[in-house]
Specification:
Elements lengths: L1 E3 L3 H12 L5 E3 L8 H4 L4 E2 L10 H11 L6 H9 L1 H10 L14 E3 L6 E4 L5 H16 L2 E3 L2 E9 L2 E9 L4 E6 L3 E3 L21 H8 L4 E2 L4 E8 L8 H5 L3 E3 L13 H13 L4 E4 L5 H7 L1 H11 L8 E10 L2 E3 L11 E3 L4 E2 L11 H17 L13 H14 L7 H15 L3 E2 L1 H17 L14 H24 L9 E2 L9 E7 L4 E8 L6 E6 L5
Parallel strand pairs: 1-2, 1-10, 2-6, 10-17, 16-18, 19-20
Antiparallel strand pairs: 3-5, 4-5, 7-8, 8-9, 11-16, 11-21, 12-15, 13-14, 14-15, 21-22, 22-23
Helix pairs in contact: 1-6, 1-12, 3-4, 14-15, 14-16, 15-16
Amino acid sequence: MLVVGTGLAGLSAALAARDAKRSVVVITKGNPLRSNSAMASGGINAALAHTEEDSPKEHAADTIKGADGLADETLAHTLCAEGARTIEWLEKLGAGFDRDKEGRIAQRSFGGTGKKRTCFVADRTGAALTQALMRACREAGVVFLTQRFLLSLSHRRGAITGVTLLNQQKSSVEAIAAREVVLAGGGFGGIYAGYTTNPLSTTGDLLAAALKAGLELSNLEFVQFHPTTLAGSGELVSEAVRGEGGYLVDGEGQRFTDELQTRDRLSRAIAKRILANSPVYIDVRHLDPAVIERRLPAFMRAASIKKGVDVTRELVEIAPAAHYTMGGIVVNAQGQTGIKGLYACGECACSGVHGANRLGGNSLLEAVAFGRLIGTRAASGRPKAPETIADEDLRADRALVAYHLEGENRFNTGAIRKSLGRALMDKAGIFRHEAGLLDALEYIEYLQGLTGGLHCIDKTPEGNVELTAILELKNALHIAEAMVFSALHRHESRGSHTRTDYPDRHEPLISLLRRASGHHLQVELLPLKGPKRWLHTLRRYLTN
């Protein structure tokens, strides 16, 4: 079995498949300890009811409410029912959650709930969980292939046959045959370069490959902006800071909002203050310095290094930034895509559990709980030798790599990435309207036209980072276009998608986006429940 991605979803799926006695190969293009999972800091939700009455049913109710009318309620209940079992499993793997004075797993408050149900390891929870899972996978015999960039999904007669990859060490195209493939490579928040908590490598590569393979993507317009990042840097200021009692104050030093409301509402409240030329700060000066040092060490360190601020004595200026993408590859309740043997989980998948807005702490739970379930599901069939991948499946990818390795470069890849990020933040950010979204599409079309002139300045195949950067940029532009298309045709405000020209909420619809014949994309809006359908066929800007 093949797993693409080394975040918590991929590692959990891999370990579950090994527990089912399957051989597993995991591929990753980057450092697993720099994944979004590893950088997630606040915690993971579970209704443990250690210190107050709580239940999976109440957790599900909060999840459904936070999703603003667009959650798959059945899956939300499934997810929340897995909470306690997931924490117990992670504990057995050595996760080492913080404890309270009675020795129970400590829990803190997170936005959108009235309960303390977020388990944590100080403010570096994601890193601790990733390290525990990496260690368990290696001990279980999972094979890791690093510096492999997914290019295409190979499939025949409706079933997966494997993947084609760029070997980043050699700049060569490889093929790995597999009858079961689990996609778990994260979302696409990195397209907002300069305005995101994500690594810039988070460019929706798996979504681009899925779209190319004829699969559908859903709800791409729902991009969650984290309310609090260090202003000007995108460095995450974890929700743990507010969960531990931090205040949000404006330029006059006044609290102006509920710090523990859902992230969509809080981001809008902060953005409105900033647009009115009032800076916004996070204030923890009233907290015990010993508590800050013990439970928020990463926040203390980041503020000191990035801003030269002592958080025990000074305010820290913050601003929202793109953080998490609710949309992704369409899957069913078992994580299966439209191609037999191909599964998806974690942020690259759209199960519908988060709807239009995710609650903080639920992403790590989804990644681990659904990763385990899907890994077990993918491994449940009788192992068979995979089909060989035909040479024609490699030909186009080899030509693509050769094209960008050769030729004279005309444009700066990094500058284009920054320009794309700035345009998306300005035109398809927290507040959106038709004119801005159309401007964004036009600008994306322009940038896509430049990619034909991108070539590696350094022609050395070994370790050529320019080649990876070019391929990431092309995927970023492709997914940015798809996201803005979807946003343009959702004529309402819901969850993280706020249209100033359509401020009201209407019938709950999910969006489906696919490639049509030629150079076209189709966006289809379907009711969450019921048979009625809407179809919008959209002209795709012609680019090479």
